[in-house]
Amino acid sequence: MAVAVAAAALAGVLVITDDGKDSGAGSAADAVQxxxxxxxxxxxxxxxxxxxxxxxxxxxxSQKLVAPAHSSGPDGTTVVIGEAGAGHTLDxxxxxxxxPCAAFxxxxxxxxxxxxxxxxYKVSFHFAAxxxxxxxxxxxxxxxxxxGAALDVSTDAFLDxxxxxxxxxxxxxxSEDSFSDDDYLLTVSQEVHALRTxxxxxxAVREGTYDPWAKKAVAAFDxxxxxxxxxxELDGSPLRGSGGSFPVTAAEFREAVNQRIxxx
Length: 264
Fold this sequence. Notes:
This protein is an alpha+beta fold. Helices cover 36% and strands 9% of the residues. It has helices at 99-118, 130-135, 139-153, 155-165, 182-189, 199-207, 211-222, 250-263, and strands at residues 9-10, 13-14, 79-81, 89-94, 122-127, 231-234, 237-238. A five-stranded mixed β-sheet has the order 3-5-4-6-7, with helices on both faces. A two-stranded antiparallel sheet has the order 1-2. Strand 6 (231-234) and strand 7 (237-238) form a beta hairpin. Helix 1 (99-118) crosses helix 8 (250-263) and helix 3 (139-153) runs antiparallel to helix 4 (155-165). The longest helix is centred in the middle third of the chain and has 20 residues, at 99-118. The model is unreliable at 1-61 (pLDDT under 50).
């Protein structure tokens, strides 16, 4: 089983990246269906916090929503990275706990980072918690909260931390909910120079500062109409690899992007 693909617009103005910058069950060609319940219903199971306990601390969901820096849109759930003048938009729909999403990040992520730098397109990231809902647990949402803390540091920290979370070294198997453990998320953050000794980032992860934001981002995915992850779209149309699903290699991805831009 698999799951959704994923950064910064500030007050409607896109921000350029600023400080440099394995899966288990399921194959990279799998597609996981999204939730059947109502969107925006609170936590992954509609009960409040990321772990279904109410608020992040189990107290009833009263924690204030704080949007990370470098985000925009309703509740700060719009995460776009790239040049404002880029003529194309790549939409990535991902679930951070999803093995095929990790495979996509490992195979295509570096090419996307290069294209952002080159101004080929800007990237809009969308995050789901399908595995939390289908398998139980809170890893998808908890990892997204930590990724929000990285986004608050910088867009480059966001991209680097996302890559580390989705790496073959750190990404858990589908049946494991490792991302529900803040200690694990902080261990992974040691791969990112900007986060290694960042006290504010560590405190935000520990305190669940961006838990309400993560829930809002998941609700936005649920309302998007996209049912599986990873989903990759360029200017609103899906990009396909040779297998008919999402591209799994940088070469496939670049070919699909170049053909789409050429056709335009």
